[in-house]
Amino acid sequence: MSTAKRTGEPKTPRRRRRYSDDFKTEAIRLVLERERRGLSLAAIGRDLGVGPGLLWQWAYAAPSPTNGTDPSAGETLEEEVRRLRREVTILRQEREFAKKAAAFFAKESL
């Protein structure tokens, strides 16, 4: 129990820390490289004095194409075409399977 509750004194509000853009950029870079370095968000946060949740928010909101949200980031045009053709093939196979399964179950229910 805090002393403020025991003594009846009002709590002083916490001040929000402000971080510079350079600090955030470097923190985001560390978060994005964490797998290569074998670090966790908590470990990076401890080193920087920032909570892992805040680091995650910064990395998620970063406008960088390499933040893991775009699977085609860094691909050449040919690589992207190959990847998309593979996706189309898989989706067509899944659609055909779903059609056959629906027909099979429809036939059984009659």
Please tag this protein with its features.
elongated, mainly alpha, single chain, 2 domains, Arc Repressor Mutant, subunit A, 110 residues
Folded structure, characterized:
With 110 residues, the protein is mostly helical. It folds into two domains: 18-70, Arc Repressor Mutant, subunit A (Orthogonal Bundle); 75-110. Helices cover 65% and strands 0% of the residues. The chain is built from six helices and no strands. It has helices at residues 3-7, 21-32, 34-37, 41-48, 52-61, 77-109. α2 crosses α5 and α4 (41-48) crosses α5.
CATH topology of the largest domain: Arc Repressor Mutant, subunit A
Strand composition percent: under 5%
The number of strands is 0
Alpha carbon gyration radius: 25 Å
CATH architecture of the largest domain: Orthogonal Bundle
The topology string of helices and strands comes to HHHHHH
Helix proportion range: 55-70%
Average of the residue pLDDT scores: 80
Q: Which overall shape is indicated by the principal axes computed on the Cα atoms?
A: elongated
- Output the CATH class name of the largest domain: Mainly Alpha
| Total individual domains | 2
Alpha-beta classification: mainly alpha
State the helix count.
6
Q: How would a textbook summarize the main sheet?
A: none
Summarize, please.
The chain has 110 residues and is mainly alpha-helical. It contains 6 helices and no strands.
